[in-house]
Amino acid sequence: MDPVPRTASLRRAPVQQRSAERLSRILDSCAQLLDEGGYEQLSTRAVAVRAGVPIGSVYRFFGNKRALVDALAERNLERYAERIAERIARIPAADWRAAMDAVLDEYLAMKRTAPGFSLVDFGNQIPVGADAGPNHRLTDRLTELLAAHLYRTPDDTLRRTFLVAVESADALVRLAFRLDPAGDENVIAQTRELLRAYLARVLD
C-alpha cells in the first residue's frame, strides 16, 4: 500500500485500509488531472469524479486543492525516499558516487514517468506546504538516509553540503527539462559531474 503522506495538510489520517486506499485513489487522480490540465484547471470536484468517490470524501481529507497538492508532494517525497533506500541498500557504503548517482537517477526517473511529478515534484514547481521549503524537506530525508548508509554523522556540515547539492541539482535539472522535454542529456551529465566534484570535498 502507498505510504500515507506525512503532512499537516491532511485533515484526518486514514486508520483503516479501505480509507487509506481511498486516499491513494484521490491522490492518484489529482496527479493525473495535473498532467492533463495543470494546477489552475484542477478542482476538488474533478478529483472526486476521477477517483470515483463522493466530494465529501475529498473534503474529509483536504480543505482545498492546495492541501491536496501538498499531500501529493509529500507522497512523492515518501515514494522517492523509499526508492532511494532500496537502491543504496545494494551499493557498498564506501561508494558514495554510486549512491549519489542513484539519488539523481531516481529523481530523473520519477520526473519522466510519475504522474503529476513534473508539475509538483516535492513542492518546487507549485509551492506548497506550511514552510514552502521543499528542498529543505528533501535535504533532511537525504541526510537521514545517506548519513546512515555512508557511516557519516548527520551534522550541520553534512546537511549544509547536501542542501547546496540539492539546490544546485534542482536548478540544473530544471534547465535540462526546459531545453528538452525528456531532459537534455548533456546538461544532466554536467550536473552529475558538478555534484561529484562538489561532494568530493566532504565525502572523500
The main pleated sheet reads as: none
Q: What's the number of extended β-strand segments?
A: 0
Question: What is the rounded Rg?
Answer: 18 Å
- Enumerate how many helices there are, as a single number: 9
What overall form do the CA principal axes indicate?
A: globular
Mean pLDDT: 89
Structural class: mainly alpha
Give unreliable regions as ranges: none
Order of helices and strands: HHHHHHHHH
Percent helix range: over 70%
Strand content: under 5%
Q: What's the N-to-C terminus distance?
A: 38 Å
Question: Could you explain how this protein is built, in words?
Answer:
The chain has 204 residues and is an all-alpha fold. The protein has helices at residues 17-41, 44-51, 55-61, 65-88, 96-113, 117-120, 134-150, 156-179, 185-203. Helix 4 packs antiparallel against helix 5 (96-113) and helix 8 (156-179) packs antiparallel against helix 9 (185-203).
Secondary-structure map with pairings?
Elements: H1 17-41, H2 44-51, H3 55-61, H4 65-88, H5 96-113, H6 117-120, H7 134-150, H8 156-179, H9 185-203
Question: TL;DR of this structure?
Answer:
The chain is mostly helical and 204 residues long. The chain has helices at 17-41, 44-51, 55-61, 65-88, 96-113, 117-120, 134-150, 156-179, 185-203.
